[in-house]
Amino acid sequence: MAQDSHSAVNAHGWRALVKRLRRANRERLNRWLTRFMGTARPVRAPLAADTRRVLVVRLNKRLGNILFLTPMLRTLAASLPTASIDVLIRDPRQKPLLESLPGIGRVWVQPRGLGALIGLIRRLRRERYDLAIDPTGNSSSNRTAVALSGARQRMGFASNSQWLRLTHAAGRANSRHQAEQAVALLTDSVDELDFKTFDTLAVFPDNRAQTAARAHWVEALGSGPTRGPVIGFFTRATGRKALPAAWWRDWCEQMRRLAPAATLLEIRPPGAEPTADTASVAVAELDVLAALLSRLSVFTAADSGPMHLAAAAGVPVVGLFRATRPEAYAPLGQGCTSVAGETFTGAEAARAAARVLAAEQASGVA
């Protein structure tokens, strides 16, 4: 048994080493290609007057990263009202969220398998996009997809390590929020266009999602009217961002003391056991989850996809940050706030949620 465990550790170490070597080789190749066919400095220029077909590429499975696109997509749709805005993503579960945005045309999903991928590239090239956008500064996959799209205008962040000649490029300010960086890419790289910008995350679940969400709500809380506000929470953040179960149980106790009229509702992943002795619900479909979250008065979670989804659904969110920076990843929405630090307690987070709830009740929302 000990030998098997030792072998497993060695295998994990070798996989990690191979992954690091591949990443290092890829970065060296990108830097070499950038010297000959990259864009290392900002390029500001007008868009072509006949820009009607736009493709935004974000090949990343993290829900938060996809939601960070929504202010940029809304800015594009509002500022180019005659254009069709398409998006290329990696996770099909996120497709309904982006399709709910005004002005979005088609949401493409990167398929598995070389043959299917080649077929997608051919379909993208047949669309004859006028503009393709890589909204990040560190994704070789995004940059490759922009190149393969065949778009005559290409937009992205200037970089010393990303190849591809861009027609529009902006400098990247890492001090900005990730969502704000994507909007700044538009305003900083395009001349002679007055952008109507958006600065909050947003999704708009359709009637089907709203109906399904109501069924989950009734299952968790009953069909009658709820007693007072409903405060949601999510305990399953990943890695160093996660908080212990005991911390969450203390938060629940503090929350009950500060808001005795409220009902606590845990949002948990499908198949996961509840963390605390409260009502709970698990929803698999992301647009249905967004619709359910929109029914809450306040939502508390560590930095995670559900935290950003709640903000996009219009819920005041208390974001908890122990391992990541709220300057870059805070929930962006009306009434949202953050609690940051290495040692904040459940009581501190509960007080923040109580303050947000009081503000919502004073405004007549909750």
Automatic annotation (TrEMBL):
GO CC, sorted alphabetically, is: cytosol
Q: Does the keyword Glycosyltransferase apply?
A: yes
| Coiled-coil features, chain-numbered ranges | none
The record's annotation in CDD domains points to:
GT9_LPS_heptosyltransferase
- According to the record, the signal peptide region is none
The record's listing under InterPro entries reads: Glyco_trans_9, LPS_LOS_Heptosyltrfase
GO biological process per UniProt: lipopolysaccharide core region biosynthetic process
Q: Which domain of life is it from?
A: Bacteria
Molecular functions (GO terms)? ADP-heptose-lipopolysaccharide heptosyltransferase activity
Q: What is this protein called?
A: Glycosyl transferase family 9
Which taxonomic lineage does the organism of this UniProt entry have? Answer: Bacteria, Pseudomonadati, Pseudomonadota, Gammaproteobacteria, Salinisphaerales
